Amino acid sequence: MIRALYTGATGLNAQQRMTDVVANNIANVNTYGFKKDRTEFEDLIYQEFKRSGTEVSPGVLNPNGLNIGLGTHIVATIKDFTMGSYLNTERALDVIIEGEGFLQFTLPDGTTGYSRDGSLKLDANGQIVNSNGHVLEPAIILPPDALAITIQSDGTFWYTAPGDEAPTQAGQITTVRFINPSGLSPAGKNIFLATAGSGEPIEGIPGEEGFGTIQQGFIENSNVQIADEMIKLIIAQRAFESNSKSIQTADDILSIAANLKR
Q1: E strands within 123-235?
Q2: How many angstroms separate the Cα of 1 from the Cα of each of 30, 137, 247?
Q3: Which of 36, 63, 108, 134 has the highest CB neighbour number within 10 Å of its CB?
Q4: Total-model pTM
Q5: How far apart are CA 212 and CA 118, in angstroms?
Q6: Residue ranges of domains in the chain
Q7: Mind listing the pLDDT tens digit for each residue in 36-80?
Q8: pLDDT in tens, 150-185
Q9: Is 118:33 a contact under the CB 8 Å cutoff?
C-alpha cells in the first residue's frame, strides 16, 4: 500500500507541472509571436512480479504477466508553431512571416536569437531593432530623412528620401528555418535559441521554397486559444483531485491496517 502513496504523488507532481505550463500559455495570450506549449506524459517503470510467457507447468505457458506501474511524469513540453492570428496595425515597421521561418536578431552576448515577433523599431542610429533593442540580422540602416518605408514580400526594404523620385533599397530581411523547430530553446523576450535538438539554422530569402513571405503592416498574435487552455486546466484539476483521492484512500487503508487488533 506504500507503493500507492508514491504513485499518487507522481501524478500530483505531473498535474501540477501541466498546470504551470497552461498558466504560462494563458499569461502570454497577448504576447506577439508567442507559441503555446503542450505537455507530454509517459508512464514510469513497472515492477514485474510475473513475466508473461513463462512456463507454469510442463508445456503450459502463462498467457499474462503481472506488472504494477509506479506512476507518471512529464517527459517533454512541445512548442506548437502553428501560426497565430494577424493583427492589422498599418504600421510601416510591423511585419509577419506568412508561413515558415524566423527573424534573426543579434543578442548582447554576440549570439543569434530567433523570433516570430515582427514588431520592429528604429534605434538612435537608424538600425532596425526589436522591442528590446536587439539588432536585426542582416543589419538594415535607414537614414534620418527616410520617408515612405516599404517592405516587399521577399523582405527587401525600400525608402524614399526627400527630393528623390525613385525609392532606394536599404537592405533585405532574410529568414531562417529549422529541421526541428520544437527543439529550439525559449530564452524569454520572444527569443528562441538554436540547440543540438533543433539543428542548424537554414537561411533563405522570404518567398523561396520552404520559406514564408513577409507581409508589412501586420503583427502575428499569440497562438494561444483561451477556451482550449481552460479545458486543459479543468482536466488537470480533475486529475489532481483523483490522484489526491488515491493517496487518501491508501492512507485510510494503512490506518485501518495499523489499528487492527488481535
Answers
A1: 128-129, 135-137, 147-151, 156-160, 168-172, 175-177, 185-188, 191-193, 202-204, 213-216, 218-220
A2: 47, 60, 10
A3: 36
A4: 0.87
A5: 13
A6: 2-81+225-258, 86-220
A7: 999 999 999 988 888 888 877 787 787 888 889 999 999 999 999
A8: 999 999 999 998 878 789 999 999 999 999 999 999
A9: yes
